[in-house]
Amino acid sequence: MKKTLFVVKLGGEVLDDSQLYTTTLKQLQACEQPLLVVHGGGKIASEMGKRLGLEPQYHQGRRITDAATLELVTMVYGGLLNKQLTAALNAGGRTALGLCGADAGLLPAQKRPVGEVDFGWVGDLLPEKLPIDRWLGLLEAGFTPVVAPLSADASGQLLNTNADTLAAHLAIALQSQYEVRLLYAFALPGLLRDIQDADSLIEQIDLASAAQLKSAGILQDGVLPKVDNALLAAEKGVSQVWICHAQALGGHFAGKASGTNVVAGEKPVDFTANTPLELLTALLRIPAFSGEEAAKADGLQAWLAAKGIAVNRLGNNLWCVNKHFDAQKPTILLNSHLDTVKPNAQYTRDPWLPEVMDGKLYGLGSNDAGGALVSLIFTFLTFEAAPNLAYNLCFLASAEEENSGSGGVELVWSHLPAIDFALVGEPTSGELAVAEKGLLVVDATVHGRAGHAARDEGDNALYKALADLEWVRHYRFERVSDTLGPVKITATIISAGSQHNVVPGTCRYTLDIRLNDCYTHEEVLETLQQHLQAELQPRSCRLRPSHLPEGHPLRLQAEKLGMHCYGSPTTSDQALMPVPSAKLGPGDSARSHTADEFIYVEQLQAGVELYSRLLQPLLLP
User: Fold this and answer.
1) Structurally, what CATH architecture does the domain formed by 276-436+545-619 represent?
2) Which of 44, 244, 428, 481 has its CA 20 to 30 A from that of 28?
3) Per-residue confidence band for 115, with pLDDT thresholds at 50, 70 and 90
């Protein structure tokens, strides 16, 4: 029988409240079972930063960490808080050992790639590289590890890493030797429906109910990382996961649990769907926001396996190849995405209760891109077992398309067979998008010299920025795409000065650039650098324009079928594919991300027939 191990994550508010901190310490000191403590301290770091002139920045509850903030959190988390807590636990009789991820390579991580948001020096843990033997060695030697939320990459670069995430992954990893109970302890009784009402406790939560609470705005901001990581731990099999008041820790240690119990959702493995409509209806019942597609991936993986398909998986991405795959033949990728955006506030229907009415299937993700996803799946199954195909087929259900995250196509691409070209499933009303604009976001900083506004002093950075923006407003890139038109640059943000009587010495502005297929990101940046006074910093060069050349076999076949070929202004996973690609699918792009999203039922089977008519002459010439 395994020993019980408590993994306790202490919120920063617990460390900041002297009375609660004292009570919590006594409970931790009295715990008779093996114990591992992970602590936060974001509030304390923020207060310390304000004293030093550093204003904290957050995105969806997660801290953005520039170089100065990294120095700050290293001192506060790894120094002050970690050592105070370690010393206090030792004074109470435990053999506590204060450490962070940089110690003995205990928390290997990598810098988070720049996506929609640049989080700076933030680290994403690499769970598959956790040195579990070292953690087990510490616990078996009787130590109580006290873990600060800092990690390090392979080069030794320190990284700020979310404490809730560390606690979840350590709990998941240590299940091999312990019955793990994961406790997220903070200054509330648990998750509350009304933050002002301590009696509005949410007693139990799973993936589906969490999605509904998020969409209703009940769960938001700083609690989101806690909930998401608690759900991950529960789904990965951690025996007990609770979000509770720090004062309740003693009760948990004594077997009297309280707070919000986080449980694994019912696994959607009993899929008996035999039509695109049945499969899509089953999938729509499973919330799958970007980065949270695990349950939907589980269900689809089980359904494909039940059909006799060998499925590969990395993260929340699934892929499979045809039965008679031949590495000597070229390969066509069929791709659509699993994830959805969050439902907007104008929904009048339950986003996860699919319903057919008046020939329409309602549900979040039905149009974008559930219809294309299931149509491509059934198209793949049509040809999967056929011998002597002229091309191999690889089907990929990808994650994190809606937020252009690094855990989707970008993560899995090197694990796929060599791809020659791709057909991406998106709602295009059955027309073929043979080109797609790329996206480049550039942050610009113009330097002047501060001075008094009442005197002829300084060099006004705001005026210099206005000269830049006037050029941006009137400049036209010479090369115009036949399908995508011209490159479009739009200034979207500007910021300068903080006092009415001071000439600003710095002005910052942001450019949103939609590229056609005639230019690379590097060419556009070079042109901007030649004409603008500002220092330019691209946020990312990942989302590149894509196209399917004239004369390409897929495009020729589309033209034979009389399909309209056009250039798309919206981005998709094509932007991350270094091969020719086009997108096509049932549904209407205009309905994407709208309230009470739907797709016409007749479009699902029509989508299978459309894909098949397009591919069959290529596969079976």
Assistant:
1) 3-Layer(aba) Sandwich (3.40)
2) 44
3) low
The pLDDT value given to residue 269: 44
297-313 per-position pLDDT tens digit:
988 998 998 888 999 99
With residue 438 as reference, give the H or E element that holds it: strand 438-447
Query: Are the C-beta atoms of residues 353 and 343 closer than 8 Å to each other?
Result: no
Which residues fall within 8 angstroms of residue 475, CB to CB, at 6 or more apart? 489, 531
| Cα-Cα-Cα-Cα dihedral sign, residues 207, 267, 112, 176 | positive
Long-range contact pairs involving 356-362 (C-beta distance under 8 Å, separation at least 24) = 356/277, 356/281, 356/601, 359/600, 359/601, 359/602, 360/598, 360/599, 360/600, 360/601, 361/277, 361/280, 361/281, 361/284, 361/598, 361/599, 361/600, 361/601, 361/604, 362/596, 362/597, 362/598
Rounded CA gap, 146 and 498, in Å?
A: 42
| Residue of 25, 41, 30, 31 lying closest to 7 (CA atoms) | 31
Stretch 588-612: mean pLDDT? 93
Q: Return d(Cα 588, Cα 372) in angstroms, integer.
A: 11
Looking at 3.30.1250.10, 3.40.50.620, 3.30.70.360, 3.40.50.150, the CATH number of the domain 438-540 comes to: 3.30.70.360
So where are the chain's domains? 3-262, 276-436+545-619, 438-540
Mean pLDDT of 215-236: 84
Contact present, 186 and 147 (Cβ < 8 Å): no
Architecture of domain 3-262: 3-Layer(aba) Sandwich (3.40)
SS3 string, 38-102, reads: EECCHHHHHHHHHHCCCCCEEECCEEEECHHHHHHHHHHHHHHHHHHHHHHHHHCCCCEEEECCC
- The secondary structure of 571-617, three-state, reads CCHHHHCCCCEEEECCCCHHHCCCCCCEEECHHHHHHHHHHHHHHHH
Q: What is the pTM for the complete model shown?
A: 0.57
